[in-house]
Amino acid sequence: MDVNAAVAAAAAIAGVLTGVIAMLAFRWSERDQKRPTRTSLHTDPVLPPGVDTVLSVLRSSAVVLDEADAVVKASSAAYALGLVRGGKLSIEPMLQMARDTRRDGEIRQVELDLPRRGSGRGEALAVSARVAPLGSRLVLLLVEDLTEARRIEAVRRDFVANVSHELKTPVGALSLLSEAVMDASDDPEAVERFAGRMQIEATRLTNLVQELIDLSRVQNDDPLEDAESVQVDELVAEAVDRCRHQAGTKQITIAAGGTADLHVWGNRGQLAAALGNLVENAVNYSPARTRVGIAARQVSAPGGDMIELAVTDQGIGISDKDKERIFERFYRVDPARSRATGGTGLGLAIVKHVVASHGGEVTVWSAEGQGSTFTLRLPEAGAARDRAQHHEPGLDDEAGGPTESSPYEPLPAPEVLP
């Protein structure tokens, strides 16, 4: 009996201890559940109904702050821009705007230049920040990235300024020459001389307007909508015919070679204009009695075979500082020579846009006094047709620039013939 009683007592004591431990564990669990965690600070349903869904589809970077300036909600774009770090808004002017808005409820907006995250070159990130109250305790910050818009606006502004300057030059010359013709009405030789100058300026003005139209067309049109298989030999022949007169005047030999019977896929007119511009530049910037070479070949590439068209001259060459800018609109390596030859400064810009819109690239090799080689790389007709059918995008129109490479040997230094 004594043994049974002892066993029963021990069992009772064990049961009581188990119950006490279970009760303590339950209380401890409840307290842990009520304690805020790092995750719950961002996921507690403190936002007004529907706001979370709206913020997730906004293009702007969104940050929601509570009354203690802690981040309640932040979009991934806000983290990418570096607006939020360590659960806090890291941009002091925006934080001050949020505090002012929380105090008086007034909506505020400001444009700021922020340092670009992860860049040691000091590039600024242009943003527009707008702060508004969200409910009684929260503040909403919306940040829009304006960097690309500002870049496009700067390009447009420079383009308008350059066009105005380029148009003003021949128009002003025509005005002065017409006055000179009127003053020299009794001198037939002077009238003839001034009329010849007027014809030159009128031709330059016509060429400028036409190339502006061409540049606008290649920027806005999709050349692959009416694409066709274009024979490279025909493009080369057309480019040679276009420059035959200028080359003959300077006794420049134009030699074409390379692989025959190659085809590219694209807009025939635009491709002919691009290659023609390169050959024309080669002739204009080469000394008399030299040679311009045009070579074509097929090369392998990861996305399909490419056709390379290289135009090599024995001209003045291009300096390193100019090579980065030669494809800019109206940029001239030698402004005096360009104007003397009737150049508008738009030819290489047109080449760049045509090649990029066809899914290719243009590269340049050059050395001062040794000439230049411009190389067009375009998708071969079959590969380009397959790419178009699968809707693969081409190169960005403004992306990148000329690279310093050429698969072709430059022509030997110019030798002036006796």
Structure description:
The protein is elongated and about 135 Å long. It is built from 14 helices and 14 strands. Mean pLDDT is 76; it is low at 32-45, 388-402 and 413-418. Helix 7 (188-220) runs parallel beside helix 13 (347-357). By secondary structure, the chain is of the alpha+beta class. The protein has helices spanning 2-34, 40-43, 51-57, 76-80, 92-104, 147-183, 188-220, 232-242, 244-249, 268-284, 320-323, 335-340, 347-357, 381-389; strands at residues 61-65, 71-74, 84-85, 88-89, 108-115, 124-134, 138-145, 228-231, 253-258, 263-266, 291-299, 306-312, 361-367, 371-379. The strands form four sheets. It has a five-stranded antiparallel sheet with strand order 2-1-7-6-5, with helices on both faces. It starts with a helix and ends in a 29-residue tail after the last helix. Strand 1 (61-65) and strand 2 form a beta hairpin.
Query: Describe the biggest sheet?
Result: 5 strands, antiparallel
The average pLDDT is 76
Strand content: 15-25%
Principal-axes geometry comes out as elongated
Order of helices and strands: HHHEEHEEHEEEHHEHHEEHEEHHHEEH
Strand order of the largest sheet: 2-1-7-6-5
Write the layout of secondary structure elements.
Blueprint: H1 2-34, H2 40-43, H3 51-57, E1 61-65, E2 71-74, H4 76-80, E3 84-85, E4 88-89, H5 92-104, E5 108-115, E6 124-134, E7 138-145, H6 147-183, H7 188-220, E8 228-231, H8 232-242, H9 244-249, E9 253-258, E10 263-266, H10 268-284, E11 291-299, E12 306-312, H11 320-323, H12 335-340, H13 347-357, E13 361-367, E14 371-379, H14 381-389
Parallel strand pairs: 9-11
Antiparallel strand pairs: 1-2, 1-7, 3-4, 5-6, 6-7, 8-10, 11-12, 12-14, 13-14
